[in-house]
Amino acid sequence: MSNRPIRVLVAKPGLDGHDRGAKVIARALRDAGMEVIYTGLRQTPEQIVAAAIQEDVDVVAMSILSGAHNHLLPRVVELLKQEGADDMLVIGGGVIPDEDIPGLKAAGIKEIFTPGTPTTAVIDFINENVKK
Amino acid sequence: MLILEYIEKLLNGDKRTCARLISIVENDEEEAKNIIKNIYKYTGKAHVIGITGPPGGGKSTLTDKLAKELRNRGKTVGIIAIDPTSPFTGGAILGDRIRMQDLATDPKVFIRSMGTRGHLGGLSKATQSAVKVLDAYGADYIIIETVGVGQSEIDIVKTADTVVMVLVPGLGDDIQAIKAGIMEIGDIFAINKSDLDGAARTAAEVKAVLDMGPMKDRKPPIVQVIASLNKGVDKLLDEILNHMEYLKSTGELRKRREENIRAEIIKLIETEIMRMVLKKSQANQILDNTVIEVADRKLDPFSACEDIMKLFSSNI
């Protein structure tokens, strides 16, 4: 399975309608040779996890700007665990205050990318952390 | 190998296993062979529906609505949605699920997005294998949504039992341009976005094009739909089911499937021979040397091919 592309689910949990960031990331990952499954706005954690399972992705990347990150992102990790899919790499991005980041990481979100992150940082992180 | 364990789980309808097996048939040719060999006897039960047509015609939305209509009628559904892979980076954005939000959490629906990964013809290379996995998994109906097609992406006919060609008003004279090729593969024509101006005219034009064709005992029906408003979708599904009845009652289903199986086997033989010849000729540097000779105009490509084939025809 050496040459297979990395598959990434780019999802927008919660109720904010701002998907520019998610689209920029989706596009950058595509250009880095990854297969990006983009599911659109206003996803519930249940929808995100169902899609991640069916699509058998390596990475679940969530963009959130609504402020509900402390609730929604850990919920996705929890549901993935219930489905036996906790080997997937879960990352998040958006306007997330610094003080919330340690808690999110403790809950199983492997990295949080805040505004100003170059897309290459996200690409490098995925390439380094996906189990091949 | 854990393969028998995997297959037992698949036959019991385990979602994660189904997803894993589709990844394997997509990524690893050797393992794919192993899997298909073991599941083939459990396949052939699903009605495979192809949804094809030009980009932006509403194929994803229509697929979503058809799947919902099938669910209303108590059926289970597998969906394979194909989007193009970049020929430059190998990356892809697979966005068909955006139109299928409500189906995501329905336990009786399985949706898988696939990139074409360099395969032309409207499908991805592993689509046929993925269909077999979903078939063994127990989907009553499998809907394949092709990439947006232009004029000659007709692989879908070799995979689906029923091909629905989705057209939209406003293509105008383009109907004329596409009448040879993709216009010939529709078992059913859906005129989507039929609330737009010119829908009736488009339907009439399609009918005219079809009437010009050879006399067949079955004329493809033309159904006007508005997928986004779920209008006409039930009628379209009725026509899809009628088509299956027609295929069964006339013996056409068996004939069609035999033709497709023949094409599939020939394709596999081609691939295998290619692999054998290239492996040997590359190992012996014959190909490299021949390339140089042809580039120097000492040899032409046809003679080069004949020379290489002669070398191997004895030990194939």
Q: Report the major sheet of chain A.
A: 5 strands, parallel
CATH hierarchy class name of the largest domain in chain B: Alpha Beta
In the CATH hierarchy, the third-tier topology of the largest domain in chain B is known as: Rossmann fold
Q: Trace the largest sheet of chain B across and list its strands.
A: 4-2-5-1-6-7-8
Number of helices of chain A: 5
Going by CATH, the homologous superfamily of the largest domain in chain B would be: P-loop containing nucleotide triphosphate hydrolases
Q: What percent of residues of chain A adopt helix (DSSP H or I)?
A: 40-55%
Written description of the protein model:
The complex is a heterodimer of chains A (132) and B (316). Chain A contains 5 helices and 5 strands; from the N terminus they run E-H-E-H-E-H-E-H-E-H. With 132 residues, chain A is an alpha/beta fold. Chain A has one domain (7-126): Cobalamin-binding domain (Rossmann fold, 3-Layer(aba) Sandwich). Chain A has a 5-stranded parallel sheet, with helices on both faces. The longest helix of chain A is centred in the middle third of the chain and has 14 residues, at 69-82. Chain A is globular, with a radius of gyration of 13 Å. With 316 residues, chain B is α/β, with parallel strands linked by helices. Chain B has 2 domains: 41-250, Rossmann fold (3-Layer(aba) Sandwich), CATH 3.40.50; 262-313, no CATH class. Chain B contains 11 helices and 8 strands. A 7-stranded parallel sheet of chain B has the order 4-2-5-1-6-7-8, sandwiched between helices. The longest helix of chain B is centred in the last third of the chain and has 32 residues, at 252-283. At the A-B interface, helix 1, strand 2 and helix 2 of A face helix 2, strand 3 and strand 4 of B.
